[in-house]
Amino acid sequence: MNYQVLPLNEASTIPSLWYTSPEIYQKEKALLWNNTWIYAGRTDQVTKPGDFLTVQIADEPILVIRGEDGILRSFINVCRHRAARVVTTSCGHTDRLRCPYHGWTYDLSGQLRGVPEFDGVTGFKREENGLPVVHVDTWGPLVFVHLGKPAIALTDALHPMPEKLQAFNIEQLRCVGQKEYILQCNWKVFIDNYLDGGYHVNAIHPSLAGVLDYKNYKTECFKYTSVQSSPLRAPQAGDDQGAAQVRTGQAAAYWWIFPNLMLNAYEGVMDTNVVYPMGPDRCRVVFDFYFHGKDQSPEAIARQTESMKVADLIQAEDVGICEDVQRGLLSQSFDTGRYSVRREQGVHHFHSLLACQLQMK
């Protein structure tokens, strides 16, 4: 289990066991997912009293809901009676929280109100059986939850992303679409692939390679975040033209927030990309696609549709290589690899943060 964090030029990757072991998955549930700020959904899903969203973080069902008093709250989405999920849809609107199993009912502040046919039960206190509270906070269009006791504020966990993204005017963007993928790989394989400093782009993503200035692609690491940035260029003769019409502007910025949120920003276009574990060798990836909110012309809608198609193609390419890597991690011949000093600072940063979290005393 022990992994020594070394300088990049001396270090090896985390062991293959960390991608395949059920014991490591359980350790992550206890020490990682319970001790970090995790992206849960969008603020536009919970604007009015009664609006809610749900998310599954590792094996923990979470509910985020706007109360009648306008306060945003979060709870463990598990009924206190027999552990059924109280809310079973991904998002929506309600005036109460009623478990579909036996009808126990909670108000929008999580307090237990209705307990059918429970007369004669001794020692039961309704006021002690509300939904367990989860910490919740927001930044811009994003909602985050913390399943434990936050050691740092959300603003510290995101630093310096909010300030650096001001140049992209993301407050003018709105979400117009979502797509979900189920991958047969450990969630960390997906993160490793994202953070490799463009190392895989020329081999795996021909359309993206046609617009990124690979020679000037760079990675910067901060305390809990990193950003990969690249100037954009016009495709040359022989380049794949697929991304050229929908990935425009001066530069691209690819932000990662520990442990599992990614945010891709271009001029007038952004997508969030979050990966949730579903076990040692399976994960769920959710993309939300943002575009400039004012332009709703047929031409703009066509560009948005094409942009999402390009993103879907790029994701399909990543799915293939990530699932192949997961199969390779089961080989008895592989335990650890080395990092490219030129390209893989972001992967090393991720592994270092993860090791510190999992090896906490």
General description of the model:
- It is a single chain.
- This protein is 24% helix and 28% strand.
- By secondary structure, it is an alpha+beta fold.
- Strand 2 and strand 3 form a beta hairpin.
- The longest helix has 32 residues.
- The radius of gyration is 22 Å and the shape is globular.
- 39% of the residues are buried.
Please outline the helices and strands.
Elements: H1 17-20, H2 22-31, E1 37-42, E2 51-57, E3 60-66, E4 72-76, E5 91-93, E6 97-98, E7 105-106, E8 112-114, E9 133-139, E10 142-146, H3 154-158, H4 161-164, E11 173-183, H5 187-194, H6 201-204, H7 206-209, E12 218-221, E13 225-231, E14 251-257, E15 261-266, E16 269-277, E17 283-292, H8 298-329, H9 345-358
Antiparallel strand pairs: 1-10, 2-3, 2-5, 3-4, 4-9, 6-7, 7-8, 9-10, 11-17, 12-13, 13-14, 14-15, 15-16, 16-17
